[in-house]
Amino acid sequence: MKSTPFYIAQRYLISKKGSQAVSFITSLSAFAMMVAVAAMFIIVSVFSGLIELNKKMISDIHADLTLSPEKGKAIPDIAKITGILSKEQEIAHFSKVIEEKAYINYKGNGEIVYLRGVDSAYTKVNPIDSTVFYGKYPSFKYSNEVIMETQLNNRLQIPVASEDDYAQILMPRPGVGLISKEADIFNKKNFFTTGVFTNSQMASYIVAPLELSAELLGMPKNTAYSVVIKLKDPTKANEVKKRLMEKLGSALMMKTKAEENAAFWKMINTEKLMIYLIFGLVIFITTFNLAGAIIIIQLDKKEQAKSLISMGMSMAKLRRVYFNTGILIVIFGVSVGLVLGSLICYLQQHFGFFKATAALPFPVKIEWQNYLIVAATALLFGIIISWIFSRGSKRQLRS
Question: Where is the ABC3 transporter permease C-terminal domain (predicted)?
Fold first, then answer.
């Protein structure tokens, strides 16, 4: 019968008549596989969670599309550009931005920061106002209202929403020539902090009305260094980019969110590959317990094997008995390991037992791809080891 090798393999594993050594080795092999699979599944799920967290953080910094000049800083003929963008049906919103380094001074505390000047449409492209946890987003009634990242605010100790406390922002004046007095070096403006926001990747950022950046740089009001664009369907970014660049010309360049973060995602993918290889190696080493279990079963069942051969079973079918035994051990270990790993990930998602920091639990994301990757890796190594060591059944019979 075709199912005879599988039936015998199943009996070898569940039978209580075998020696304690066989039971111990097979149980140890299944347990080791279970732990290795659970560990790999948990780690790749945590990594998936970290990727999702980084995606969210990056989305707070970069738009679906970013338009900037090929040369220089300011976008030429901005009125024409915004007219073209307004006619594109796939664009939901766009906003003009001027970002430049500046220096902040408050009662002797000073720091170099990034000043991001934005227009009133910016929150439609990037909902940074939703990350303001104290105070409020600038009203845009006055050009000197700003919000700053909480870490920067903690370092400078600038009061929030206090009408009596103003800090000063300085930016080097453009141009050439001799400097006769200090006032010639910087353009200065006093500003009022209306709120603070949280984003660890913007730890040195101030967000202010576009007019403040333009005034400090001595630029006309209708100016922008870049235009950030939110699409109705972000998956069409490359298609929209191609269509817009045909209209905008070669004086401008446009990058998708993925292109702006190409180096970051390359690093993430490299780290993910390294984690997979490391835990793949752990599972491969674990499968040598499986090899030990197959050899012990061959030795323990040697007399039964001789009886099966004398009754007409071929060596090929006998090898398949030991091969099936190994596969059953692997399947049991993988199945229980995935269930255990899923349970731990589920508990982490809902209760956050394990913390990355005091306030941030390790993020976890359970994906079907992770089940496939982990199960396929363990089964592949299990099949290879089972096949190799089931070949030794003939040698064991002769010994």
Answer: 277-392
